[in-house]
Design a protein that fits this description.
Elements lengths: L1 H16 L2 H36 L5 H9 L4 E4 L5 E4 L1 H15 L2 H33 L3 H8 L1 H41 L15 H26 L2 H13 L9 H12 L16 H25 L5
Antiparallel strand pairs: 1-2
Helix pairs in contact: 1-7, 2-4, 2-7, 5-7, 5-8, 5-9, 6-7, 7-8, 7-11, 8-9, 8-10, 8-11, 10-11
Amino acid sequence: MKRLCNNLAFDFSYIRKSKVPLVILLIVVGICLIFCLIQYDYVMSNYDSYTRAADLYDGDEARMSADLESGEYDVVESDDGLTTIKNPILYYKILVGMSIYSVSGAYSTSHILEVGILIFPFLFTCIGVFLATVDLKNRIYKHKILRYGRRNYILSKSISFLLISLIVILLFVVINRLCVIVLENIIESKINVVDFSYSPAPQGSVIIKILTAFLIAILYLSIGFLLGTATRNAIVSVGLTAVYLFILPIFSRFEIQNCCYVIMKENFNFEGLVGLSDYISMDAKLSVAVLLLYLLISNLTSYLVVKLRSAYN
């Protein structure tokens, strides 16, 4: 236990002294700021469409009120791709209300974690690759293996995965919440938000949402560590990840990405900017079990690679 704690302390001491925490913080802040800018543009674009639809009434408040109170609209897309909106004033009012809600504090945590399904797999894989290759790059891998042992080396990395995943997710939640506070004030100065009420679908537990994101994060971090450990090459590992995530389609319902989509769909409403791409439906509990199995396999495989490989190679 003492050797495990010493190895863990060594890992975090090195990470703390490196530029990695600063780089991760800048990435998180950058993503949150870009996301808020996109959200602002989304809200104002919908509001501009609403005002243009209102201008078509030429001040006929009675007719506009009747259309708004009708409660019905329809969006028809023709075979040639032309979209026709019947009762556009109501359609855009609902869209403005939905987009304002998506940037509210009530939805901020869910929204940034929904965005995470696009960001977390690649981001956390890269972090895992870094944790695997940094020891080799700085020639301290042999020192750790000989001093602390292979088992303690893997255990300390696994504990690091847990802590790093949780810290990064909480950073996303907190920094995005601060950005949303500013964004809300800016939008309220430009739009009378009380005129655009929106009734969202029932929201699930925030804790469940965070745990869902945490599972996805730690899984991909473990996979990144496995790739980095096996290849000993960060560029190759990141390249393989990019091909899987962004190029290859989903072939099986038991694929990692498909299982992630299933549990995200189960626990998130996706009422904001982000939606899920096509995936193969399956039971959510089975998806969680499959992901936990992948997590176990990736950690055991990493241990076997470290155990079978000489510390001097």
